[in-house]
Amino acid sequence: MPIRKEHKEFHTIDMTGEGWHSPPGYPPDIEQKILAGRLDEAGKTGNRTRLLRFAPGAYTTVPFAHEYWEEVFLVSGDLIVGGSSVKEPSLSFGPNTYACRPPGVYHGPFRSHTGCLLLELHYYEA
Asked: Which of 12, 16, 26, 79 has the most C-beta neighbours closer than 10 Å?
């Protein structure tokens, strides 16, 4: 299945307010902005490229598992992964770090002390 996305040349992205919203299941201080594509989770098709930003102090409370591939690049800020129990230590990451997660892999919970910006690619394998 070919990946179909709109042709877009370099353009300025509004990083202030327009087009940002909290994804379902996330707290209000974590917001996304879809840059390209469309991911149909019910139909298990498609792809998307999005920015995900955490406000300073933002956090999730439970691990996530998706039915799609997820690639994540930490653009700026700090991201702390794990630590949801005494048995699970947390790991801290800074800018220019990358994660690739296959479908069904649990990851998180997440938090950020200073806030962070992530570039994420989500896609279903053909």
From this structure: 79
